[in-house]
Write a structure and sequence with these properties.
heterodimer, A: about 110 residues, mainly beta, seven-stranded mixed β-sheet, four-stranded antiparallel β-sheet, 11 strands, about 0% helix, B: about 110 residues, five-stranded antiparallel β-sheet, globular
Chain lengths: ~110, ~110
């Protein structure tokens, strides 16, 4: 089944404790991206990657890191989480090659930083 | 400032009637628009899209209308069904931005039986 998977689905942590949210896709997509969803603000892009070893900042990159060592994986790293990073996070992937391409989303990771 | 806005956070409609969800944008570079649907505890799923060269696109019960001069688009669902109850996100993209999408804040649609 074609899908985007994220782990963990739920995470409660404390301020300053480094964490990683994994994202994996099995559709051989070049493009991958991370979003956070907050009430009233919709989905805001954190980082995106056009291909392996190519990453770039989205609209809200502060406090986050990413890496793209393999095509299928795109982990999101919070080196020192803070309470304002409490949010619902979505990973997405999509094909490239055209100007407009649909993105496929994972099920989400709900993060709470105390 | 948000470039894509959905000014109605929620909408309640009776089953069988029409649901109209609205979206406004400010960036004139946007030329492709998408609607995503999201159920609780799931990721958004693509619903329907429209290019700026069109003013209407239809897919079954779902129709998207685009008014470029007003920088406004709307999603019509006819007839509405209880299974349509979800959060709907409007998203926009520009030709030179490839896959990058800018999302609105979402509208929660409730279809009452």
């Amino acid at each position: 089944e074609a899908q985007v998977t994220q782990n963990p689905r739920y995470l409660i942590t404390v301020t300053g404790k480094k964490l990683t949210v994994t994202c994996s896709q099995n559709m051989n997509h070049e493009y991958m991206s991370w979003y956070r969803q907050d009430p009233g603000l919709g989905l805001r892009q954190i980082y995106y990657s056009m291909n392996v070893e190519v990453t770039d900042k989205g609209d809200v990159p502060e406090g986050y890191k990413v890496s793209r060592k393999e095509k299928r994986n795109f982990p999101l790293i919070l080196e020192s989480p803070s309470p304002n990073q409490t949010s619902l996070y979505f990973c997405a992937s999509g094909p490239t090659g055209g100007p407009y391409n649909e993105q496929f989303f994972g099920p989400g990771t709900r993060l709470t930083v105390l | 400032d948000q470039q894509v806005k959905q000014n109605s956070p929620s909408l309640s409609v009776q089953e069988g009637r029409i649901s109209i969800l609205n979206c406004d944008y400010t960036n004139s570079m946007f030329d492709y628009f998408l609607w995503y649907k999201k159920y609780p505890a799931e990721g958004p799923t693509f619903l329907i899209s429209i290019s700026s060269i069109k003013d209407k696109n239809e897919d079954g019960r779902f129709t998207v209308f685009l008014n470029k001069s007003a920088k406004h688009l709307s999603l019509h669902i006819v007839p509405s069904q209880p299974g349509d109850s979800a959060v709907y996100f409007c998203a926009a993209s520009a030709y030179n931005a490839g896959n990058m999408l800018t999302f609105g804040g979402g509208t929660r649609l409730m279809v009452k039986p």
